Amino acid sequence: MMKRAPTYCALLTLAACSMDIIDHGNGNGGANGQNRDAGPRDAGPRDAGRDGGVTVADAGFADAGLPCALNHSFGSDLGVVTIGDTSTVTFVWRTEVGSCNTTALALDPPAADIAISGPTLPTSASELVVTASFAPSAPGAVETQLRATASGNSGFVWPLFAVGVPSEVPSSQTVTFDVTNTSTLAVYVMTEGTFCDAFDVGLSRNLGFQCGCECPPPPKPHGRVYVRVDPGMSHAITWDARALVEVPYTEHCALPVSDQTAPRVAGVPQPAVPGSYSVDIAYETTIPDGCSVNGMFLECDTLEPAEETPPLVAELCPATQLESVAFTLPATGDVTVPVAIGP
Known about the structure:
Oligomer: single chain
Largest sheet: 7 strands, antiparallel
Mean pLDDT: 75
Radius of gyration: 26 Å
Strand content: 35-45%
Shape: elongated
């Protein structure tokens, strides 16, 4: 039994931002990132357009009185997409007669997992329809530009952003940490944290603070729920023997594309590699400040702001007491790990 001291921060949804931001080509609707959909992205990977694609409605460039409508730069999100799935987005523009009587489409730079298609521009006022699809073959972020070059015109550039993630793999094992209070006084074992993990096995298990471009200031990471364990009593903490496969990417905070960005991480649970591990169990010997008693549990909250941005991937919550125990995760089968704690 060993004790050690405790140790102590993108993408837009197309449906939420496309209409306001690209209307009439001015880009003002989303300059401050107010139309963000942060929830599903934080919860894990999503498929932005697998059910027939997302359509960016008429951008209204002709209303701007341009002799050739192909000269604006905006950005679009093909989403966080699981390998094996496909996300599709369709762009539709009204066009004007002028020197833009033909157009050629290309990705600059080329992106192996993004395909584009679209007709040449008619010689009369009509619509230009371009489709981009993303079918990831490997985890990672992809950034490129859809470039249309029209005769006699520099054309338009439309940045594209996409993230590929692996498939989630269900848990096939359970590791139970059987925490027993060997002291003569009650202890309070942490079971849940805010922007942090209540226990640590040396692997990433949960996403942390995923603000993106704009959000209220977060509280500091802290233990949110504790269970009281009386002398001689035990409490079981379980781990599903999985860890996150992390895929970092960049969220672009304004359209047209600017230098305003925010770091993000997509995380997908997959089984941990069998081998030797060590678990750190966080606990307290007295009731922490800001906690209320609810039967055998403590429910804790804090309005104290974080001194710095919490990590993008959750780390072990701050605690005054830690108990560390080594264990082995086999290739198959469940495991029970005894953990004796006490002041």
